[in-house]
Amino acid sequence: MVNITDFQKIGIGLVGFGTFFNLMGIMLMFDKGLLAIGNLMFLAGLTMIIGLERTMRFFFQRHKLKGTAFFMGGILVVLFGYPVIGMAVESYGFLSLFGGFIPTIVGFARGIPGLNLIFAIPFVNRVS
Fold it and tell me: Are 79 and 85 in contact (CB under 8 A)?
């Protein structure tokens, strides 16, 4: 079994709350306050989970610099008060950075009892 430190537990909570605040900010007509809090919590949580050095190495790899620039630029645009544009830019950067993990996430989700029924639908099966 994997040992999880207290910092990593806090980081998981921050990532979860950051995701929740981002979803609530989107559902509440791109509320810039919720989106800003969600973005900052997500980044702080990610840093606490994998550590500062590994976070910096992940974001500043040569082949991920474009995704990092769009992701961080989108966060700055949201913080400056333009949430729709910022989320669009940030979404592109997020997909560019974390797009390689999507097949792993889909494979993991296929093993979850409730979600495997969704992936059994022909249209969803073709897309995934």
Answer: no
How far is Cα 76 from Cα 45, in angstroms, rounded to an integer? 18
Number of other CB atoms surrounding residue 88 within 10 Å? 14
Contacts of 47 (CB under 8 A, 6+ apart): 11, 55
Q: H helices of the chain, where? A: 6-27, 32-50, 52-59, 65-79, 83-98, 102-110, 115-119, 122-127
Each residue's pLDDT tens digit, 57-101: 999 999 999 999 999 999 999 999 999 999 999 999 999 998 888
Nearest CA-CA partner of 70 in 41, 97, 36: 97
Q: Is 111 helix (H, G, I), strand (E, B) or coil?
A: coil
Phi/psi of residue 114, each to 5°? -80, -35
* pTM reported for the whole predicted model: 0.83
In whole angstroms, give the CA distance from residue 30 to residue 72. Answer: 18
Nearest-angstrom CA–CA distance, 41 and 24? 14
